[in-house]
């Protein structure tokens, strides 16, 4: 056992962590983060999906022996990926399970296959890597992370492929994007499970100052309403953080008037404050217009170079 010990050890780390392993190499940091956030004596399930080769080539191009060879190659690559990932947990006091899902036999797509398997395993947290670019092979990028975060019954931790190496060693600076909703409060409660007596936490509310043709009221009126709502939201967040973390803080952030949005404002603040983790609810509301819906949370996960914890509101 080599996990951290009290008083630096979090008290409520997830005991059942499900890790989606990218057979094409985007999961290195995700596995390191999963190793960091799992509770001592917990269980981790490492799952890789072998895609159906027929989804990548024109129908009829692969037949007979060629199709079987392609299926075998994809399955072997997925198996090798989970075996390699399991070695990362060798020195942790956790139970490790591995699984390869062959879509040629299972059917469906990657996101739904992972969600179904995680649900059956009763996962408390799903961790996956994210590619933030488009290439020949698209696996754990927007095509998987967004629907998985939307469909999963537990929180999803999206770890960018290009995030800092320190992500697997420290989650000491937690940034909470809040909007005053119950869903944002729920996300904060889950995110604080990673906090210790030395954790720094910062809650932010983004006032959207950008002028859009869809605005139904003058921007100054909307901005004033957002400032009032944001002030209330940050006061509530400050109360939740007090007594839980070493250095709680709050900030009211504004977008630029043009060529800006809430997602980019959150990511900029995360980079400026050197956050180790961004925590967001995925079904919040912000009064007059929507804010913390999947479009914003998903966009943050796409562009952030910081791990993003997405906590979905239940039954919405």
Automatic annotation (TrEMBL):
UspA domain location: 16-160, 172-312
Similarity comment: family membership: Belongs to the universal stress protein A family.
UniProt-recorded name of the protein: Universal stress protein
């Amino acid at each position: 056992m080599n996990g951290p010990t009290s008083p630096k050890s979090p008290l409520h780390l997830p005991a059942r962590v499900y890790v989606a392993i990218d057979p094409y190499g985007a999961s290195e940091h995700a596995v390191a983060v999963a190793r960091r956030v799992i509770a001592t004596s917990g269980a981790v399930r490492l799952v890789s999906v072998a895609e159906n080769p027929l989804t990548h080539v024109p129908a009829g191009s692969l037949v007979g022996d060629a199709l079987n060879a392609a299926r075998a190659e994809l399955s072997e690559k997925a198996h090798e990926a989970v075996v390699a990932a399991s070695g990362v947990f060798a020195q942790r006091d956790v139970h490790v399970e591995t699984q390869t899902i062959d879509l040629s036999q299972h059917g469906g797509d990657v996101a739904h296959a992972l969600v179904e398997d995680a649900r059956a395993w009763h996962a408390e947290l799903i961790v996956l890597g994210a590619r933030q670019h488009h290439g020949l092979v698209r696996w754990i990028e927007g095509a998987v992370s967004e629907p998985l975060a939307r469909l999963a019954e537990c929180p999803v931790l999206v770890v960018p492929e290009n995030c800092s190496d320190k992500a697997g060693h420290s989650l000491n600076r937690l940034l909470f994007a809040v909007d005053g909703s119950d869903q944002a409060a729920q996300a904060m409660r889950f995110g604080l499970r990673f906090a210790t007596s030395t954790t720094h936490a910062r809650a932010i509310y983004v006032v959207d100052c950008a002028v859009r043709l869809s605005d139904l009221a003058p921007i100054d009126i909307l901005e004033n309403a957002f400032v009032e709502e944001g002030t209330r939201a940050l006061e509530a967040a400050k109360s939740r953080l007090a007594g839980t973390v070493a250095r709680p803080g709050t900030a009211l952030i504004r977008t630029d008037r043009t060529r800006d949005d809430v997602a980019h404002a959150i990511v900029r603040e995360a980079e400026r404050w050197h956050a180790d983790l961004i925590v967001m609810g995925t079904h919040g509301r912000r009064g007059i217009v929507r804010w913390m819906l999947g479009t914003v949370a998903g966009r943050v996960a796409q562009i952030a170079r910081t791990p993003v914890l997405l906590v979905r509101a239940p039954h919405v």
